[in-house]
Amino acid sequence: MTITADTRTARPADPCSLVIFGASGDLTHRLLVPALYNLSAAGLLPDAFALIGVARSEMSSEAFRADLATSLPKYATRKVDDAVAKKLLAGVAYVQGEPDDPASYQRIGRELDRIERERATGGNRLFYLATPPTVFAAIGGHLGESGLAREADGAWRRVIIEKPFGTDLASARTLNRRLLGVLNEDQIFRIDHYLGKETVQNILVLRFANGLFEPIWNRDHIDHVQITVAEALTVGRRGNYYDATGALRDMVPNHLFQLLSLVAMEPPARFAADPVRAGKAELLDAVTLQSPEEAFHNSVRGQYGDGVVDNEVVAAYRQAKDVDPDSTTETYAALKLSIDNWRWAGVPFYLRTGKALRAKRTEVAIKFKQAPIAMFRDTPVEHLAQNFLVVGIQPNECIGLEFNAKVPGPSISIGGVGMTFKYEDYFAAPPSTGYETLIYDCMIGDAILYPRADGIEAGWRIVQPFIDAWRAAGGEGLASYRAGSDGPAEADRLIGGNGRRWRPLA
Ligand code: BG6
Predict the structure, then answer these.
(1) Cis before 395 (ω within 30)
(2) Would you say 126 and 17 are in contact if contact means Cβ atoms under 8 Å apart?
(3) Cα–ligand 1 centroid distance for 246 (angstroms)
(4) Are 371 and 506 in contact (CB under 8 A)?
(5) Alpha-carbon distances, residue 236 vs 26, 31, 355 (angstroms)
(6) Which residues line ligand 1 (CB under 6 A)?
(7) How far apart are CA 237 and CA 184, in angstroms?
(8) Quick check: 226 and 263 in contact, CB under 8 A?
(9) Which one of 239, 345, 397, 443 is least enclosed by Cβ atoms within 10 Å?
């Protein structure tokens, strides 16, 4: 049976204006506007809605509207209905602005006053910072100080901040302090697009809407957990950003830690923003903090060399545009972490992520302890299939259970088999950008999918010793791997022992 995603139970969001900083950028065109289109097509965007784009270049509102009208069909996830697009674009305006110029915020304020009257948005405002992270603090500060984000007369004012939220623990703390100096925590929505993925949200449902898994979701039954976010994509044209960032900061404190905390957190008392976010932050708080020496020992970093990915020849990372030819930036990171609490003591969590790998694969694999197999003396333990519960996030959206079964025949011989639930077999959801739920949730004031300041800082606290250890080591210990492979061989040694090995990427 296929169940069609039903949005009828959801109400349209509150009337509001959305101000996007970084309106001329990629994110706005490729993801945000198509997501707004999808919300509008689903009847979830309010009729009283306005969109103001802000960017550095001079442009008229008409030109901005025309620009979005051209890019929308290019990036939309479904065929564009002219009537829906027209309705969405009718409320679009543009303001030229500089992040650090107070006069820009006065211009934005004047435009907001005008459009709020014209579109009857009731004064609710959502500011979306789709800019480079270097200007998050400046824009956040000006929004607070100019009064544009001050809540009054029942109207809400909220700010969505893109990633990366800081580049290390100190900068994340500084940014939190700056923002919390002018806004309340409940006005700040720090986005992590992994939380917009249905399969990621489903981890909580799998764990807490079923009585089946929770009793065995602990150190008594689980041997280890593997979290993989592998990409076939190379650094592409993002050399400037990526070479200063690396795989660890780009992916681990945000996307991988979201997966980690959903998989390992304690059951929250209620399915609501505060208990869920507190549970996730508490889990990250329980991750053992390693010294830089321990972190060095419990990690592998690698950089891709030449190779072939998806039948395409790929040049080594160091030859990519805007990458230092002597760069020691990692394009692959694998970490071993442990969690100091009753549920997880002694259960290693292995995390890996990288670019230019054999295939795109995001999954969480729970490896259960081996059965005592003394009964089946003829089957050596290494021939038994391992018991894995695998939550496939992308590209395969599925949940699979791998176990042993008797091979038909007169003797007892055992073979590994699997059962897989595929989302597409049960649910038909229209293709989306992944930003729809996140934007909609912010508009209705539900922060359940947005990490809080404490969660963000807890994430950086865990990775900081790895950052420090790798910075101190320079090129020492930087492994290399062939583009199109499963990653550096050194990562096998990190997980190896006790019969543990990484699941293959292909
Ligand atoms: C982004 C990273 O946050 O996530 C990119 O900056 C990465 O480097 C991307 O490619 C991966 O997202 P997804 O949704 O394709 O897994």
Answers:
(1) yes
(2) yes
(3) 12
(4) no
(5) 14, 18, 10
(6) 163, 231, 233, 250, 362
(7) 37
(8) no
(9) 345
